[in-house]
Amino acid sequence: MSTPERKCLLELEGISKWFPRKRTVKDAVQHAERQYVKAVSDVSLQIYEGENLGLVGESGCGKSTLARTIMRLYDPTAGQIILDGRDITRLKGNALRQERIKMQMVFQDPYSSLNPRMTVYEMLEEPLKVYHFVPKDEIPQEVDRLLRISGLSPEIANRFPGEFSGGQRQRLGIARALALRPRFIIADEPVSALDVSIQAQILNLLADLQEELNLTVLFISHDLQVVRHISDRVIVMYLGAIVESGKTEDVFDRPHHPYTDVLMKAAPSLDVDARTKEYAIEGDPPSPISIPSGCKFHPRCTRCQERCRTEQPALTTLPDGRQIACHFPLNTDSP
Amino acid sequence: MKNKRSRRLSGGLKAAFSNRSFVIGFVITAIVVVVALFPQVFATHDPNALSPTEVLAGPSSAHFFGTDNYGRDVFSRCIWATRMDLQIGLISASIPLVVGSIIGLLAGFYGGIVDTLFMRLLDVVMAFPFTVLVIAIMAILGQGIQNMYIAIWIIGWVAFAKLVRAEVLVVKNSEYVMAARIMGFSDRRILLRHILPNTISSAIVYFTSYIVICMLTGASLSFLGLGVQPPTSEWGSLMNMGRGYINNAPWMTIFPGLFLAITGVGLSLIGDGMTDFLRTKGR
Question: With an 8 Å Cβ cutoff, is B4 touching chain A?
Fold first, then answer.
């Protein structure tokens, strides 16, 4: 792998998450087969200690479902989740609780991710109290510390979330995620609901915290520029599966998968001359209920050939450690 | 800790008392409650004292609202009835608020077969008009005030369960509840600390108007002779008594009706005001 010397903190083995569709009376009468929304299919990946792994893809490609499955908010349909050497896929109750607090999440919408009826202090005090994380008389100092490292003033502790701006709320979300001193943080589109000027502040905060607290971060985003800025490695998802992964600069400079290529070119650029229409991706992604045969991307691919329609390309690891699922990759020496 | 709680309380009260409908409703209701607590202070006569010489006398300085067919003072009877009616409203509305909210909370949160069963049961109950169903149950249980409470309780939880469940379905998928789950909090903690405070406001607002509905139902049942039995004064039964004399002694009917209407307006205004400030707070 790209960083073999580092310890693997989280490993996913063939994770799938399918949501059954509700059967209608018509389905039952016709004995139709049960249909599934295949949000995530057969995803395997490793996240190494201390790294920032970017996960990119269009809306609806299963990024958030994958994040929630890792957090065990959803039970995976298939596959294994190995956290710090321990399989947590089937853990329940207290055992799950004890493992899961090593992971925390920062949410996309800072307006719906904070309980509107709890003050900042109550919100940060709660996990500390439940887990007896610090002695009772030290809780106020700990809350102060959490607010400070998130770039907030401890004086705001008695206010309600409704009194803050989006950026401040996202800082509160980060402070809450840090309360249980997790080793691994999933940031699910943490800046996409914020103004551009605030985005940079929150990104820098995340990067600083990652370094100071030696956190491992899975950074989910559809904004390629943001991922390029913050991530060490990047994984590209399409329709619930990984199509490409590798070091950020490699993937951005020499994308192998045609989907990654059009994704990069579809991203808005400030350079007027570089803007081009010819690579703009066409059509909508297919429905995750009826996934195309062969390569999932073939109906929208400019390089599509007969083989792509019938044979699903496996995710293969190249000699340089990059992974790619395509029969006819771009920018490679070997075919 | 104490300081924080009082800060929250004073913040809430400030929001409440800057709302005009709430203030007007609060003043009316406060007067009604004072009357109910100390009727002897306001009543000019013994509500049950008969006075055969003054039968069906019109309003005068001696009898503000006139007298009834036994010569009893209508004003004093209305005053004493306040206690009875407020008691009916509170007792019959509070049990459904508590029971209905708990059922709605659990059904919405856990879902599944229990939820389905409760919701179908609820559909059946809701298909009938409220008063008709209460009367039907009282036909089985028999007349009297205790049976009236039981009848209203059996039906009343339904509306609260439905209201709270609908809100729980929204809130339980919100990101802050997800965050609480990730933190590994117990279901009990998530329900009580994260879901309940964010779902109960519409039930509490409905509670204020439900008190009025219960008082009206109580009055209707007394009017029909099923609820409060004479000679206990209750606005509905007072109006029922006055019905026979509506042409020559309309005061027997009008004044109890006015008391009922004013109390209803007061409680409804509180509810209206609460809708405004509970819904907007913290969002």
Answer: yes
Helix or strand or coil: residue A308? helix
For A11-69, write each residue's pLDDT tens digit: 999 999 999 888 778 888 888 788 888 899 899 999 999 999 999 988 888 899 999 99
Binary contact (A107, B175; C-beta < 8 A): yes
Q: How far is B17 from chain A (nearest CA, A)?
A: 19
Are A73 and B182 inside 8 Å of each other by CB? yes
Question: Residue A80: beta bridge partners?
Answer: A13
Bridge pairing between strands A241-247 and A78-83: unpaired
Report the alpha-carbon distance of residue B130 to residue B136 in Å, rounded.
10
- State the ipTM, two decimals: 0.85
CA distance A109 to A97: 25
Contact (CB, 8 A) for A246 and A39: no
A92 contacts: CB under 8 Å, gap ≥ 6:
none
B178 contacts on A by Cβ (under 8 Å)? 68, 73, 105, 107, 113
Q: Given B7, B8, B176, which is nearest A114 (Cβ)?
A: B176
Which of A71, A98, A117 faces B182 most closely, judged by CB atoms?
A71
- CA pair distance B193, B195, nearest whole angstrom: 6
pLDDT, chain A, mean:
87
pTM: 0.82
Query: Which of A117, A120, A220 is the best substitution to test chain B (most B C-beta atoms within 10 A)?
Result: A117
Angle formed at CA A119 by CA A117 and CA A123, multiple of 5 degrees: 95
pLDDT for residue B83 is more than 60: yes
Residues 6+ apart with CB under 8 A from B18: none
Q: How confident is the model at residue B3 (pLDDT cuts 50, 70, 90)?
A: low
Per CATH, which fold does B81-281 belong to?
MetI-like fold (1.10.3720)
How many whole angstroms separate alpha carbon A181 and alpha carbon A131?
12
| Cα–Cα distance, B176 to B136 (Å, whole number) | 45
Chain A hits for B279, Cβ within 8 Å: none
Q: How confident is the model at residue B283 (pLDDT cuts 50, 70, 90)?
A: very low
Question: Of the spans B11-25, B85-99, B114-128, which averages the highest pLDDT?
Answer: B85-99
> With b meaning 16 or more CB within 10 Å and e meaning fewer, what string describes B18-30?
ebebbebbbebbe
Q: Are B185 and A117 within 8 A, CB to CB?
A: no
Contact B176 A113 (CB under 8 A): yes
Q: Which of A116, A130, A176 sits opposite B179 (nearest CB)?
A: A176
Q: Which residue(s) pair with A238 in the sheet?
A: A241
In this prediction, residue A300 carries a pLDDT of 84
Which two structure tokens, joined as six digits, stand for B191?
């329900």
Question: Rounded to the nearest 5°, which phi and psi values hold at B214?
Answer: -65, -40
Which is higher by pLDDT, B7 or A252?
A: A252
**Tens of pLDDT along A25-40?**
888 888 878 888 889 9
Give the C-alpha distances (Å, rounded to integers) separating A4 from A48, A209, A321, A323.
Answer: 9, 24, 10, 15
> Dihedral angle at the C-alpha atoms of B52, B55, B59, B61, nearest 10 degrees?
-20
Instruction: Give the closest residue to A300 by CA, choosing from A234, A291, A66, A42.
Output: A291
Tell which of B182, B198, B277, B280 to mutate to test the A interface (max A CBs under 10 Å): B182
Rounded mean pLDDT, B8-19: 74
Q: Any chain A CB within 8 A of the CB of B185? A: yes
